[in-house]
From TrEMBL, chain A:
<feature type="domain" description="Aminotransferase class I/classII large">
    <location>
        <begin position="102"/>
        <end position="459"/>
    </location>
</feature>
<dbReference type="InterPro" id="IPR001917">
    <property type="entry name" value="Aminotrans_II_pyridoxalP_BS"/>
</dbReference>
<keyword id="KW-0808">Transferase</keyword>
<dbReference type="InterPro" id="IPR015422">
    <property type="entry name" value="PyrdxlP-dep_Trfase_small"/>
</dbReference>
<keyword id="KW-0472">Membrane</keyword>
<dbReference type="GO" id="GO:0017059">
    <property type="term" value="C:serine palmitoyltransferase complex"/>
</dbReference>
<comment type="similarity">
    <text>Belongs to the class-II pyridoxal-phosphate-dependent aminotransferase family.</text>
</comment>
<dbReference type="GO" id="GO:0046512">
    <property type="term" value="P:sphingosine biosynthetic process"/>
</dbReference>
<protein>
    <recommendedName>
        <fullName>serine C-palmitoyltransferase</fullName>
        <ecNumber>2.3.1.50</ecNumber>
    </recommendedName>
</protein>
TrEMBL record, chain B:
<keyword id="KW-0746">Sphingolipid metabolism</keyword>
<dbReference type="GO" id="GO:0030170">
    <property type="term" value="F:pyridoxal phosphate binding"/>
</dbReference>
<comment type="pathway">
    <text>Sphingolipid metabolism.</text>
</comment>
<keyword id="KW-0443">Lipid metabolism</keyword>
<dbReference type="Pfam" id="PF00155">
    <property type="entry name" value="Aminotran_1_2"/>
</dbReference>
<dbReference type="GO" id="GO:0004758">
    <property type="term" value="F:serine C-palmitoyltransferase activity"/>
</dbReference>
<feature type="domain" description="Aminotransferase class I/classII large">
    <location>
        <begin position="76"/>
        <end position="434"/>
    </location>
</feature>
<dbReference type="InterPro" id="IPR015421">
    <property type="entry name" value="PyrdxlP-dep_Trfase_major"/>
</dbReference>
<dbReference type="GO" id="GO:0005789">
    <property type="term" value="C:endoplasmic reticulum membrane"/>
</dbReference>
Length: 489, 449
C-alpha cells in the first residue's frame, strides 16, 4: 500500500493531463501535415493506429535519454557509461566516443559476479574452449553435454529439490512451462503484480486466469473458495487443477512474498504453488537459497520452484526445480526443451562456478562474505534513505529499493541530475508501474563498498532536495501531513 | 383505528425485518457450509499425467564440442544433429573473440536493454547484421525461440488478420496465439492454397482494408525442410496488400551466393519483406535471435516487444561471437559452396533408401527423411524412427535427430529423421551416414515399403 500526498496526486494528474493535451495538439498538426504531404503507405494499414503509440511518441520520446543507456564495461559497481547526443530533440540518439565513469545502482548484480571473477572466469574460458559458445542444437537432439547434466544436479542441490531442468532464457522458462503444466479446464490464480513473463505464460496456457490482490493471503483464500464453489465458467464443472503463481521478491516493489501464509492456504485447498524466484535466489537467505530459506518454508511444500540466473549468478538462463517425475515430464513435454537451443556451455559453467563460490566449495569464504555484505548494504542503504526522508518501498533484507517519484517531470530530472553527479540510476514509469506511481529503482550489490554507498547517499540527498522528492521529512509536522494523504494501491 | 393499523404495520415491519435478518444470516451460514463442503470434496488432478515409457527418453550426452565430429561415451561420432551449417563450432577466431569478450565484460549482462543492459557490442552487432543483410536497422533478442513469439504480438493485435503456413514451428504458433488475432492456416508450402485463403479473407470485406494483415512463413521450414517460394509470395502480397513476416533461422548464412538468405536466393530485393527474424543458433554458431526491417518496424519493437523489454539482454560474449561469425562468413564465401556440395552428396547417398523418402527441398541444409508408408499414428511413426536413429548411433556412430514434437505443438506434418548438414563434414562422413541409414532402414523397415 502506497500513500500519496493529496498535493502530489493533484500535481501528478495535472502534469499528465498537460502532457496529454499538448500531445494531442501535436498529433492534430501532424495529421494536417500528413494530409497535405500525402501518405506513403500505399494502401497498407499503418503499423500503429491512432492512440496505440501515443504514449511512445509524445511522452516517452521526450525522456528517451534516461533509458537504454549503453555501457562500455562490465555492469559492475562502477561502470563506463557511453554518452549520447541528439540532434533532433530526442527523437534519435547517437553514440559519442565520450565515456563517463559512474556508480552503478541499476544493474542486477546482487552478488557481484558481473565482471570477470578470479574463480569463475578461468573455468568459463576453459569450458568455452572445450564446448564452443553454442551447441547449435536442441537438448533432445544433440545439445545435451556433460556440463548440462552437471548444472542441473548442482542447481537441484542448491535449491533443495530432487531434480531441476535448465533453459537458456528466464523469460521463456515461464512462457513455455506454464502451458505444459496446465491447460484448458484449469485455473490459474496469479498475484496482481506478477511479471510480464508469468502473465504471458498464463495467457498462453489456455487456462482461466484470476487475479488476487498483491500479497494478500486473505484475498487469495476468498478467491479460491469462490472459484472452487463455482467451478468452470458456464459449465460449472469442477476445475481440473488450480495453480497459484507468486514471486519471491517483486521487482517493482522490493517486497517479499508472504510465502508461509500462502503455502498454508494452498495446502488447505489443495492448490499447486508455483514460486518465481528470479530476484530472490542467491540474494537472500542465510546461504543464499532464496525466500524459502529466509521465511522458513520447507521446499517440499512448494510444488514448483522457478528462478533465473541473470541476477545473482552473472549469467543467463532459467531453471525449474521440482520432483523427479515433474522434471522428467517437462523434458518430454515442454517446448522450450524440445525446440530451443540449449543453454550456452560457458554460461552453464559460470553458473556452476558461482554456486560453488556461494556454497564455499571453492575453498574460500568469499560466498559467505558476499551474502553478508549484500544484506548489510541493503539494510544500511534503506535505513539511511528513510532517515533522509525519502519514500522507500520494500522489506528489510531485500536488495531492491524503489524510491517514489510520482510526478512525471521528476523522472527525467532525477535521472539526469544523478548522472551529472556520476551516479547511474534506473527510473521506471508507466507501463511498468501504474500511471501515478513512477519510481526510481535501486539495486544494491555485494560489490558496492561503504564509500560507494555513502557517496550515493550524498548525491541522493542533494538531488532529492533540488527536485523535492523527500516526501516523508523527519519533522514534527509529519502528523499534519498524514491527514492530507490519499491511499493508493 | 389509524393508530391500531400503524402499530400493526410497524410491528409487522420490524418482525419482517427481523425475519429478513435471520433469513439472511441463515442463508450466509448455509452458503459458507456449502462452500466448505465443496472445497473439502474437490480433488485436483495430479500435477502431471502418469509416466509412460516414452517419457523416460534420455538424449545422448556429448563430451566435447558439437562440431562435425563429437565424443559420446568415449567414442567418436559423426554429428548430424547440430545445426552447425557453416562449421563454425570450434572455429579458432570465434573462440578468440569470445575469450576476449569474457575477460572484458564477464559472462552475463545483468539487466534488460532499457536499464544498463545495453553494452556497446550489442549496438555494434545490430549495426553489423543490418549492414550484412542490407536493411536499415535490426534488433537483438536474447534467445532464438523468443524472437518470433515476441515480434508477432508486438505487431499483431486483436482483430488483425494473419495467414500462416500450417507447418510453422511452435514459437510462431505461440506468437500467433498470444497476439489474439484471427489466424487462418494454409496448406504447407502450397501457393494455390495461400491464394485461396487470401482471397477468402479479403473478399467483400471492406473492413479488412483498415486492418493490419500479415502473411507468416518460414524460409526453410524446421518441420519439413521445404523452402518457401518467396517470389510467388511477394507477388501475392503486393496484390492483396499484406505484410510479410519471414523467419530465416535456417537460411541465413546458407542460401544465396553470399549467404544473405532467401531474399538473395530468390532474387527478391530485401526491402520488400517487412519483417525478417532469424535465430542465430544455427549458421552463426552462437545464441540469441535477431529481427530486422525498416527503421519504423525496429523502433516499434524496442518498446512494445515483451521478449526485448522484460528480459535480460544477450550475454556480451555471444554477441561478439555473432559479429565474428559474420566476419568469417564474409571472408570465406567458399563455406557456402562447400555446404551446397555436401547437401548434394548426402541427398544422392540417401536417394534410394528403403522405406524412407527425402521430403525436404534439395537446396535445404536440413535433410528430412520421412516414412514412405506411415504406421497410422504419429506415435507409431516416431517409435520406428527412434529405433532407426538409435541403431545408427550404436552400430555406426552416426548421430541423427528425430523430429520429436511437444504435446503443445499443433503442427500436423509427418515426423521424420533430420540430418543437419555442415560445411565441416567430409565426403567420408556423408558416405558413411548414407550407407549406415540405408542398412539400418532396410532391416527395420523390411516389409513396410
Amino acid at each position: 500500500m502506497i500513500t500519496i500526498p493529496y498535493l502530489t496526486a493533484l500535481t501528478t494528474y495535472f502534469s499528465y493531463g498537460l502532457l496529454f493535451v499538448f500531445g494531442q495538439f501535436r498529433d492534430f498538426f501532424r495529421k494536417i501535415v500528413d494530409w497535405w504531404l500525402g501518405s506513403n503507405l500505399q494502401g497498407y494499414a499503418p503499423i500503429c493506429l491512432g492512440l496505440e503509440d501515443f504514449y511512445t511518441r509524445r511522452l516517452y520520446l521526450r525522456i528517451q535519454d534516461c533509458f537504454g543507456r549503453p555501457i562500455a564495461s562490465p555492469p559492475d559497481s562502477w561502470v563506463d557509461l557511453v554518452e549520447r547526443v541528439s540532434k533532433d530533440n530526442n527523437k534519435t540518439l547517437q553514440r559519442t566516443a565520450k565515456i563517463s565513469r559512474c556508480l552503478n545502482l541499476g544493474s542486477y548484480n546482487y552478488l557481484g559476479f558481473a565482471a570477470a571473477d578470479e574463480y569463475c572466469t578461468p573455468r568459463v574460458i576453459e569450458s568455452l574452449k572445450r564446448f564452443s559458445p553454442s551447441t547449435c542444437s536442441t537438448r533432445v537432439d544433440g545439445g545435451t553435454t556433460t556440463l548440462h547434466n552437471e548444472l542441473e544436479e548442482v542447481v537441484a542441490n542448491f535449491v533443495g529439490k530432487p531434480a531441476a531442468i535448465v533453459f537458456g532464457m528466464g523469460y521463456v522458462t515461464n512462457s513455455a512451462v506454464l502451458p505444459a503444466l496446465i491447460g484448458k479446464g484449469g485455473l490459474i490464480i496469479s498475484d496482481s503484480l506478477n511479471h510480464n513473463s508469468i502473465v504471458n505464460g498464463a495467457r498462453g496456457s489456455g487456462a482461466t486466469v484470476r487475479v488476487f490482490q498483491h500479497n494478500m493471503p486473505d484475498h487469495l483464500e476468498k478467491v479460491l473458495r469462490e472459484q472452487i464453489a463455482e467451478g468452470q465458467p458456464r459449465t460449472h464443472r469442477p476445475w481440473k487443477k488450480i495453480m497459484v503463481l507468486v514471486e519471491g521478491i517483486y521487482s517493482m516493489e522490493g517486497e517479499l512474498c508472504k510465502l508461509p501464509e500462502i503455502v498454508a492456504i494452498c495446502k488447505k485447498y489443495r492448490a499447486y504453488v508455483y514460486l518465481d524466484e528470479a530476484h530472490s535466489i542467491g540474494a537472500i537467505g542465510k546461504t543464499g537459497r532464496g525466500v524459502c530459506e529466509l521465511l522458513g518454508v520447507d521446499t517440499a511444500d512448494v510444488d514448483i520452484l522457478m528462478g533465473t540466473f541473470t541476477k545473482s549468478f552473472g549469467s543467463c538462463g532459467g531453471y525449474i526445480a521440482g520432483s523427479k517425475e515433474l522434471i522428467q515430464y517437462m523434458k518430454y513435454a515442454c517446448p522450450a526443451h524440445l525446440y530451443a537451443t540449449s543453454i550456452s556451455p560457458p554460461a552453464a559453467q559460470q553458473i556452476i562456478s558461482a554456486i560453488r563460490v556461494i556454497l564455499g566449495e571453492d575453498g574460500t569464504s568469499r560466498g559467505a562474505q558476499k551474502l553478508a555484505r549484500i544484506r548489510e548494504n541493503s539494510n544500511f542503504f534503506r535505513s539511511e534513505l528513510q532517515k533522509m526522508g525519502f519514500e522507500v518501498l520494500g522489506d528489510n533484507d531485500s536488495p531492491v529499493m524503489p524510491v517514489m517519484l510520482y510526478n512525471p517531470a521528476k523522472i527525467p530530472a532525477f535521472s539526469r541530475e544523478c548522472l551529472k553527479n556520476q551516479v547511474a540510476v534506473v527510473t521506471v514509469a508507466f507501463p511498468a508501474t501504474p500511471l501515478l506511481l513512477a519510481r526510481a529503482r535501486i539495486c544494491i550489490s555485494a560489490s558496492h563498498t561503504r564509500e560507494d554507498l555513502i557517496k550515493a547517499l550524498e548525491v541522493f540527498s542533494k538531488v532529492g532536495d533540488l527536485i523535492g522528492i523527500k516526501y516523508f521529512p523527519a519533522e514534527p509536522d509529519k502528523q499534519q501531513q498524514d491527514e492530507g494523504r490519499v491511499k493508493l494501491e | 383505528m389509524k393508530d391500531f393499523f400503524s402499530q400493526m404495520q410497524s410491528s409487522w415491519c420490524t418482525s419482517e425485518k427481523k425475519d429478513c435478518k435471520v433469513h439472511i444470516f441463515e442463508l450466509v451460514v448455509h452458503l459458507k457450509m456449502e462452500i466448505d463442503e465443496l472445497c473439502d470434496e474437490w480433488v485436483p488432478e495430479p500435477l502431471i499425467p502418469k509416466m509412460t515409457d516414452e517419457m523416460r527418453y534420455e538424449p545422448p550426452i556429448l563430451e566435447s564440442a558439437a562440431g562435425s565430429h563429437t565424443l559420446i561415451n568415449g567414442t567418436e561420432v559423426i554429428n548430424f544433429a547440430s545445426a552447425n551449417y557453416l562449421g563454425l563450432v570450434g572455429h579458432g577466431k570465434l573462440l578468440e573473440a569470445c575469450t576476449e569478450s569474457l575477460e572484458k565484460y564477464g559472462a552475463g549482462s545483468c539487466g534488460p536493454r532499457g536499464f544498463y543492459g545495453t553494452i556497446d557490442v550489442h549496438l555494434d552487432c545490430e549495426a553489423r547484421i543490418a549492414k550484412f543483410l542490407g536493411t536499415p536497422d535490426s534488433i537483438l533478442y536474447s534467445y532464438g525461440l523468443s524472437t518470433m513469439f515476441s515480434a508477432i504480438p508486438a505487431f499483431c493485435k486483436k482483430g488483425d488478420v494473419i495467414v500462416a503456413d500450417e507447418g510453422v514451428h511452435w514459437a510462431i504458433q505461440n506468437g500467433l496465439q498470444l497476439s489474439r488475432s484471427t489466424v487462418v492456416y494454409f496448406k504447407h508450402n502450397d501457393m494455390e492454397s495461400l491464394r485461396d485463403m487470401l482471397e477468402k479473407v479479403t473478399k467483400g470485406n471492406k473492413r479488412a482494408e483498415k486492418l493490419r494483415r500479415y502473411i507468416v512463413v518460414e524460409a526453410v521450414y524446421q518441420n519439413s525442410g521445404q523452402i518457401a517460394p518467396l517470389d510467388e509470395i511477394i507477388r501475392l502480397k503486393e496484390n492483396y496488400r499484406f505484410r510479410v513476416l519471414l523467419d530465416e533461422s535456417n537460411s541465413m548464412g546458407v542460401l544465396g551466393s553470399s549467404g544473405r538468405g532467401l531474399t538473395e536466393y530468390c532474387k527478391v530485393p530485401v526491402g520488400k519483406i517487412d519483417i525478417i527474424t532469424a535465430a542465430m543458433g544455427h549458421a552463426l554458431a552462437t545464441e540469441g535471435g535477431v529481427c530486422t526491417g525498416s527503421a519504423r518496424v525496429i523502433d516499434h519493437q524496442r518498446l512494445s516487444s515483451s521478449g526485448y523489454v522484460f528480459s535480460a539482454s544477450l550475454p556480451p560474449y555471444l554477441t561478439s561471437a555473432a559479429i565474428t561469425a559474420i566476419d568469417i562468413l564474409e571472408e570465406n564465401l567458399d563455406l557456402i559452396m562447400k555446404l551446397k556440395k555436401n547437401i548434394g552428396t548426402l541427398c544422392r547417398g540417401l536417394s534410394d533408401i528403403q522405406g524412407l523418402e527425402i521430403a525436404s527441398d534439395l537446396a535445404s541444409p536440413i535433410v528430412f527423411l520421412r516414412l514412405k508408408k506411415s504406421t497410422g499414428s504419429l506415435k507409431g511413426d516416431l517409435q520406428v524412427l527412434e529405433d532407426i536413429a538409435q541403431h545408427v548411433l550404436k552400430e555406426d556412430s552416426v548421430l541423427v535427430a528425430t523430429s520429436r514434437r511437444s504435446t503443445l505443438d499443433k503442427c500436423k506434418l509427418p515426423v521424420g529423421i533430420r540430418l543437419f548438414v555442415s560445411a565441416a563434414h567430409t565426403e567420408d562422413d556423408l558416405m558413411k551416414a548414407g550407407e549406415s541409414l540405408k542398412r539400418v532402414a532396410a532391416l527395420a523397415l523390411n516389409g513396410h515399403d
